[in-house]
Amino acid sequence: MGWGEDKEETQPQAASRFHSYLHGGTSSLLSTLPTIAVFPVYKTVFRQQLHNTSVRQAVAQLKREGALKLYRGVTPPLLMRTLNGTLLFGLQDTLLHQLSSSSSSAKVVPLSALPAVAGFAAGLVEALVFTPFERVQNMLQNGHNDRTLPTLRSILVRLGSERLALGYYRALLPIAARNALGSCLYFGVKGPLCALAEGQGLPATAASFLSGTLTSMAISLPLYPLSVLVANMQAGAGGQETGTVRSCWRVLWASRGRSVALLYRGGSLVILRSCITWGVTTAIYDQQQRRAS
What we know:
Layout: H1 2-32, H2 35-51, H3 55-65, H4 75-100, H5 103-108, H6 114-141, H7 152-160, H8 172-199, H9 204-234, H10 245-255, H11 260-263, H12 267-292
C-alpha cells in the first residue's frame, strides 16, 4: 500500500519534469523564430566581433559576399536555441527537484539559493552539449571560410578530422564559464524579480517578461567579452588557431587597442536582442508552467 502511494505521488512529479522540458523547448523556439528576419543584423554584429570593424564596414563585407550567403549559418542557432531551451529549463527543474528533496543539500545551501545552484550545473551541461553547435555556427558565419569550407558538410568533415579540443570543442572553457554563470544568475534572479514586479501590481505575464529582460541585461553586460572571445577562437578552421584561452585573450585585447569600448563594439545590438528574446522566453515559459499546474 505504501509503495502504491509513493508511485501515485511520483507520477505528477514526473509529469511536471516533462512539462519543464517541453515548455522550455517551445518557449525558446517561439522566441527565436524572429531570428530568421533579423539574422542579417546578428551576422553583422558577429563580423564586428570577429574583425573589429564598424557597422558600415561589416555591412559592406556582407554585400560583397552576396545575398545567397547572407543566411549562411542561420540553421544552427535556430536548432541550438530550441534544444538549448529544452535542456536548460528541463534539467534545471530536475536538478532543483533533486536538491530540494535532499536533506544533505539543505544543510549546505540555503533554500533560496538552490535555483541558482541548479542553474549553474545545468549551464555546465549545456556547454558540454552545445559547444559543437556553436563551433559550427561561428565557422559558417566567418566569410574567410567560404572558399575552403563552402558547405556545412565540409565543415563537419574538417572538424571531425581534428582533435576535440581544436575541433568541435574549441573554446569549451570560456563557453562553460559564460553559460554556467549566466544560467546561475538567470535562475537565481528571475524568480525574485518576477515576484517583486507582481507585488507592484503588474500582470503575471508582464512581470515574467520584465524579469527575463532585466535578468538578461544583468547577465549580458558583464559576460559579453566572453562571447567575443569565443567567436574569435571558434571562427577559424580546425588547426588554424591553436592558442590557449589566455593567449587568445591577449591577442584579442591587443587587437582592440586595449579599449573596453572597442571590445564591446556591436554589443548594444546583441544585448538588446538578448534582452527581448529572454523576456519573451521567460513570459511564455512561465505562462505555460502556470497553465500546466
